[in-house]
Amino acid sequence: MSRAALVSLLVALLFGFSPAMLAGTSAQSATPMASPAAMSANVSVFATGLDSPRGLAFGPDGALYVGESGVGGPTATDGKCEQVPPPVGPYMGGPTGRISKIDASGQRSTVIDGLPSAVTGPGVGSDPSSVAAVAFLDGTFYYLLTGGGCSHGNPDTPNGVYTIDASGKPKLVADLDAFVKAHPVAKPNPGDFEPDGDFYSMIAANGKLYVVEANHGELDEVDPASGAINRIVDISASQGHIVPTSLALGPDGAFYVGNLTPAPFPDGSAVIFRITQDGKLDVFARGLTTVLGLAFDGQGRLYALESTTGNTQQPPFMVPGSGRVVRLGADGAQETIATGLMFPTTILFGPDGNLYASNAGYGQGPTAGKGEIVKIDVSAAPAASPAAGATPVA
């Protein structure tokens, strides 16, 4: 997602636009959070008090770890390096990003704070970005930073994959910032180009870490042992600027990637791609909307998080409280699992079989403490599901 596209989603996250752009423009993005009553009955609030929550991961200790975007800061780098074009840029940066740990009772504690955070320009809502995703691999904790780099007002800390050393300090594992600059994609979008990249998702699999970059449009592999980075596929080469965001590993060993699409994010315009380990890309399903999260359950069924639906043709485009989760059947048809979510940013199955979602993750500007994690009972889907809309692709 270009941070503009994901930043709109956060980045819109957005990516082509920014997550801020996804959410709205200017003061219009300061949208109140949905009340629990607005969500379907199978959704409950698990944790509150988060700063624009993004990526989720359950640790070996059973706790839920959450990446948070913070509120940016006062640092401007305009004139010192290449900037993201207005209105998404210039960004303002500062050390307000955070990673939290949520225990079984929903209580939050801080794992690490003071991480680079950046906010988009006020013309697109001043939405923040920092830690995009978190993951555990062989018991080691990693996080994906997307609010770093000079163009985001944080010149001393590049975007990349990090871990936390024995002293509790960030340790760079792989410099994704340098990689995207040295390896440009085939079809970048000049209108909202993120010089330092706009990374959205990360998963651990096969002894490696895999990341999706939304603004340039690529899926990359990171070897945490050596820090080596390998591009699996340049999505832009065949698809153009489509703002790929979410990432999941399927039971068939292939990667599944959903996309946000640039604004105005028309319903049914997003797709899910299937990408083989050697980079072959095919469309798996069509007819989805603003896909920011993907997850497979224990039965191998795919769930997609649609961050906002029923979108309008004019700013602010996105509709508050319209986020939902759908389950895709073998034929690609959608079954609605949860509704009424407020600008959610990712989903993850927990060890208890419930689906967890970062809710109120963007669209409110740099306002701390409004984000939450909700728990979804996927066995109790809403009684009245909208008609199926996804189209299977042979």
Descriptive overview:
The structure is a single chain. The protein is mostly beta strands. Helix content is 6%, strand content 40%. The protein contains 4 helices and 26 strands. Strands 2-3-4-5-6 form a 5-stranded antiparallel β-sheet, with no helix packed on it. It is globular. Residues 1-37 and 385-392 have low confidence and may be disordered.
Gist?
The chain has 394 residues and is mainly β. The protein has helices at residues 3-8, 19-23, 176-182, 235-239, and strands at residues 43-50, 53-58, 64-68, 92-102, 108-119, 128-129, 131-137, 140-145, 160-164, 170-174, 199-205, 208-213, 218-222, 229-234, 244-249, 255-259, 270-275, 281-288, 291-296, 302-306, 323-328, 334-341, 346-349, 355-359, 371-376, 391-392. The radius of gyration is 18 Å and the shape is globular.
Question: Could you list some keywords that capture this structure?
Answer:
single chain, 394 residues, mainly beta, Neuraminidase, five-stranded antiparallel beta sheet, 4 helices, 26 strands, globular, disordered C terminus
